[in-house]
Amino acid sequence: MSKNNVEVAVIGGGAAGIAAARKLTAHGVDCLIVEARNRLGGRAFTVSHPSEHALDMGCGWLHSADCNPWVAVATARGRVFDKAIPPWGRMTMTDIVPAETQRAFRQAMGQLFARVSEAAATGIDRPVSDLLPPDGRWNGMLNAVMTYIAGAELELMSTIDLDRYEDTELNWRLVDGYGAVIAAHGDGLPVAFDCAATRIDHSGKRIAIEMPKGIIEADRVIVTLPTSIIGDNENLFYPALPAKTQAARGLPLGLDDKLFIALDGAEEFESESRVFGRTDRAGTGNYHFRPFGRPMIECYLAGRLARDLEAAGEAAFFDFAVGELTELFGASFAKRLKPIALHRWGSDPYARGAYSYAVPGAADQRAILAAPVDDRLYFAGEACSRFDFSTAHGAYLTGIQAADRILAGLRKT
Ligand SMILES: Cc1cc2nc3c(=O)[nH]c(=O)nc-3n(C[C@H](O)[C@H](O)[C@H](O)COP(=O)(O)OP(=O)(O)OC[C@H]3O[C@@H](n4cnc5c(N)ncnc54)[C@H](O)[C@@H]3O)c2cc1C
């Protein structure tokens, strides 16, 4: 641990923490990131594949790219963007799922979102599943798609929160990885690695962050921990902050795990194409063929399905994907597949999930979670964002907001 006495400690070195610490440091604030892992980035995590392809196990898409602050960061670092239209924005694999069927599904999706807006406008929150047509042909697949978007099934999700999410529908990627650029933005910042905060004692004049390795004291603290960690530990703060614990519990992390599979003879398939394992159930995989034109399949397995697979162990992911893909492409397809990489976010002790959704009635908990306490304990992270929650750019913006609040208090803006 490099130092144990600072003006501002930022707990968590993910997108929010890095953005906050970078801004504070630029304004001459003595600041330290306290990070449980031995790396920066958190849920932004790029790994290298032996073929030298960068694989984003966490965030991969720069959503709302026309107003996403990571675009400027990546541009300044000379990173190469891929601006191909994502598979969900066009028709693909029409030989497997006819264009007409794909159009019918899109229409059902559009109708669901229209009903979400109408229902949210009433101000009465309810589970999104209430808005599905009874016995609707597309209910299973609508649920499946929401598990990739929000990590959870529609019956768990707040209509008002979902309606607040903003997206300009411009989605880019980075050839060398989104996670890699987010972590690189932390280069040179002071970080205490392998330091998992177990208690944040704000009873005294200075705030004490307790960890197995010792104590760090700070005048101000920015907490960027995932809601899973805040909600599961009511003793995290001393004195306790029940409003924060409750807010975090109303904003649990859904689950989305990515499995990359090498595909022999991949050229047979169009680049950036996509198919679902099934169109009639929520528990199915979303298979993105040849991302960036690479000879692989990026599989998204989410919601309850991902929880069940995590419980069954690592091999269960590949087995499930092979099972669905051979149903679609024939038994011999299995011989062309080889697992490359998987990250199980639900079993990751410092994430315990993928991204936050609000349970019905909890949409306003995002503001409660984000509110500072006594002008010295600040909160940031994707779940604190009212409109850009669940994203890396939402996390960035909340980190900047917390840093700006501190700078305003210190009159350093
Ligand atoms: C599979 C997957 C796909 C995704 N796809 C996209 C996408 O395409 N586009 C997009 O914008 N977003 C995507 N996201 C979401 C995005 O990655 C997150 O919203 C964002 O990275 C969250 O940043 P954060 O700083 O709020 O939290 P985190 O990244 O979780 O940062 C919190 C940090 O706190 C640390 N920590 C935890 N416990 C402790 C402790 N006790 N003490 C100290 N430190 C601790 C963690 O290690 C972590 O580094 C995806 C996420 C996943 C998992």
- Mean of the pLDDT scores? 96
Q: Please summarize the sheet with the most strands.
A: 8 strands, mixed
Structural class: alpha/beta
CATH topology of the largest domain: FAD/NAD(P)-binding domain
Distance between the termini: 29 Å
Q: How much helix, percentage-wise, in residues? A: 25-40%
- For the secondary structure, the number of strands is 19
Unreliable stretches covering 5 or more consecutive residues: none
- What is the CATH top level name of the largest domain? Alpha Beta
Overall tally of domains: 2
Fourth-tier CATH superfamily name of the largest domain: FAD/NAD(P)-binding domain
Shape: globular
Number of helical elements: 12
Rg, Cα atoms, Å = 21 Å
The fraction of residues assigned to DSSP E strands is 15-25%
In short:
With 413 residues, the protein is α/β, with parallel strands linked by helices.
Defining traits:
413 residues; eight-stranded mixed β-sheet; Polyamine Oxidase, Chain A, domain 2; 2 domains; FAD/NAD(P)-binding domain; single chain; five-stranded antiparallel β-sheet; 19% strand; binds flavin-adenine dinucleotide; 12 helices; alpha/beta
How would you describe this structure to a colleague?
The chain has 12 helices and 19 strands. It starts with a strand and ends with a helix. With 413 residues, the protein is α/β, with parallel strands linked by helices. Strands 1, 2, 7, 8, 9, 10, 11 and 19 form an 8-stranded mixed β-sheet that branches. The chain has a 5-stranded antiparallel β-sheet with strand order 14-15-16-13-17. Strands 3-4 form a two-stranded antiparallel ribbon. The radius of gyration is 21 Å and the shape is globular. The protein is 32% helix and 19% strand. Bound molecules: flavin-adenine dinucleotide. Flavin-adenine dinucleotide binds next to α1, β13 and α12.
